[in-house]
Amino acid sequence: MFYRESGDFKTSYAADQQTFPIRFDRIVVALILVCAFLVVPFFINDYWEKSILLPFLVWSLAALGLNILTGYCGQVSLGTGGFMAVGAYACYKLTTGFPDLNIIFVILLSGGITALVGIIFGLPSLRIKGFYLAVATLASQFFLVWLFNKVPWFYNYSASGQITMPERSVFGTAVTGSAATPSATYLFSLLFVVVFAFIARNLTRGRLGRSWMAIRDMDIAAEIIGVPPLQAKLSAFAVSSFYIGLSGALFFGVYLGAVEPTEAFGIDKSFLVLFMIIIGGLGSIFGSFVGAAFMVLLPVLFKNIMVGGFGWPTDMVQHFIFMLVGGLIMFFLIVEPHGLAQLWRVTKEKLRLWPFPH
Amino acid sequence: MSPMILNTIEVMLNGLMTGVMYSLVALGFVLIFKASGIFNYAQGVMALFAALTLVGFQSGQIPFSHLINVVFGTDYHNWGPGMNAFLAILLTMAVMVLLAWLVERLVLRHLVNQEPIILFMATIGLAFFMEGLGDMMWGANIKVLDIGLPSGGSFWWEDVTRVWATEGSEYYGMYIDVLDVWAAGIAIVLVIALTLFSQYTKTGRALRAVADDHQAALTVGISLRTIWIVVWSIAGFVALVAGIMWGSKSGIQFSLSLIALKALPVLILGGFTSIPGAIVGGLIIGVGEKLFEFAIGPLIGGATENWFAYVLALMFLMFRPQGLYGDKIIERV
Amino acid sequence: MNSTRKFGDPILSVNNISLSFGGVKALTNISFDILQGEIRAIIGPNGAGKSSMLNVINGFYHPQEGEVWFDGKLRGSLRPYEIARQGIARTFQNIALFKGMSTLDNLMTGRITKMHANIFWQALWKGKAEKEELMHRERVERIIDFLEIQAIRKTPVGRLPYGLQKRVELGRALAAESKLLLLDEPMAGMNLEEKEDMCRFILEVNDQFGTTIALIEHDMSVVMDIADRVIVLDYGKKIGDGYPDEVRNDKDVIDAYLGVAHD
Hints:
The structure holds 3 protein chains of 3 kinds. Chain A is an all-alpha fold.
């Protein structure tokens, strides 16, 4: 009833181009944001922070990043884990090297450094395509993780080889380290996610986004009509790596607090993020969030039901989740290659026409 | 010869043996890629799955016993003392054929005409599914696989090589694992058999026809679906062989499926469509990573085998995107 | 079309172009020019090298010999996107639209050489970026009106029928507001009505915007109707060049089209 566009006339191109053209959507999004910023912080506890909300926020950023590269620009990457490691280690080195630097800048700079590394590892994309490129990105995954393991400078020569985040605060409130409260870490991460989701949306609907999609859909034609492939691909790598670097920095600094590279940033993380965007929806900002939520919630849900409810052993639930995720990936690629976001879009289109489907 | 040279030769020999293993996995990739244009990421997990199944049959495990026990509160584990290796291999092969049939039926059939990269991602899904399935069926504990292949260092080779060293230098001969030699031998037999199969049998010819041109093969009455089942079965067989070799060498565990990842750079070097390419590529990577680790590894912290293959492939791609044996790509609009 | 129309100086001239792939000669010693404001057709049997010729003009293939003059300057070895920036747009024989994007976005991408806002403004969707988007949107809307594709503005082009896709592709090339427009078989696979529409669009573009057009077409009646001058290629060689009437009566051309055996 309320979800419709008739009567909601657009009188300028600016109004027609806005992110949420339907009023109902705008209201819902505003409500969600108000709720996320003003309501959730009062109810959040340790369990919700560590098991659901922080992982969701951190992986959403990573999924946004990979979606820009893979979903929008069509370059499949299996190096996400490695780039997250770059973000995490950049964050660590910057925090320990410049103790007075505000943590917000530290995290932004970590993204910037990851973007530079991303450009370097993106160079091969100018010559190779498709799964050749996917294999080439494995080089970044394995090489970077090895580097952080083997070069003591990166972990400040600590005996364990681990890196641990010192306490840092914003406006006098600790956001990293053990003193940080769940609401502080949550709000801090949420701020990054909201701002950069907004930016991702703007980038993907403008000139840059169109040049990425042109390269994705038909690279040769794109070059012939005037899209410089070098610029388009490298900017996709840079922006994507920036997001993944941010996510890595938050993952280490705010969420975990201490990491060991092989375990925290292994190839399984690269696959995890890839699965998020396949299930959520390739080439969709909204899909990145849905995919991240799905992949974060699914194991939590099944652990609660099967371990808590049926009393299954944990490792068996793990195997079951593997099968389920693998099966879902195949299912989505077969039935709906554009993921949950597309299902949602179709539902909305039906809703718009309801109750007169023809 | 000085011990230094002899040591280098030993490293190269061991590299060759490792390379044979890579080639075995890569071979499975090439077969499927040629016949269906699918880059089957799950090949490594297929090897893991095959090896798990083989051990399961051999030791008489009941499939899904953990699941059954949890759900019904029973306590079954084994149905008997097990069976001999040969029978177990035959049964495992039957399982792999069944699997090929299921994959065609449930997945491939619905993904015809999709872009290669979508198919690739689907096989990543398949890999996860099979990994979960394998663990669910047979349990995730590390297993020992022994089908009676000899293993251990070769004393004969040690004796032969000891006298090569310069008089007076301390050298105790080269170490080479008999199992590796067996693996190399079996791999060679396998490649010859596959070549003969594709050259001289009707199915083999149909297979090559499909590899050349799907549409044209369809028009002369070749059933694509049958061919795919055949190819995935053969790939399953290759996976079984690879699984046996790797499993006998280092036990059956999850890391086995990571071998699949190592096979990817092998394919890039050799090209996705060339069987000799897969073999040469495997050998180059095997020797290359061992030599690099031997010569340069100690200087930069070691464990370079983790990434050497990928970085080599990456460099190689920059100069020759079509692989060693591929044709030059001419782009058209 | 009558031959009394007057045209300016050559906007493009190619001199002694030869192109080969490995040992296969695709083009041999081709020279011709295209005058400012004319509609120039390239015809010839399948495999004659027509598409290769277009690919040379917009820099996708680099000929081994010969030179290309565009807009009064000798052109060096440029990448295709640099050539697009100089003012050459084109359509493709097998539709090369960006299938995942809407009609509107496809057309906006056609104007990509004219957009310059940097990444920071784009990220904020403010200032120069927003102004630029709106300005180009207006230009694109004019083309949408002109081609009568208002209704499919926001439809992903992958879902459109063939004829409309061809029209959107023409739109994308028009959006570039280029000096020279290359059309590779714009009417292939169309029915009579669609062909008539397409002819009308081509003539109107030429007439209203003064765009110079080079087109490849198989339908001889279409070519004879709309082209000012015609080049005939066969086996990578130029066998005819002139006004439609001259070409129609040329012996070599008739031989090539009627399939007289080559000896």
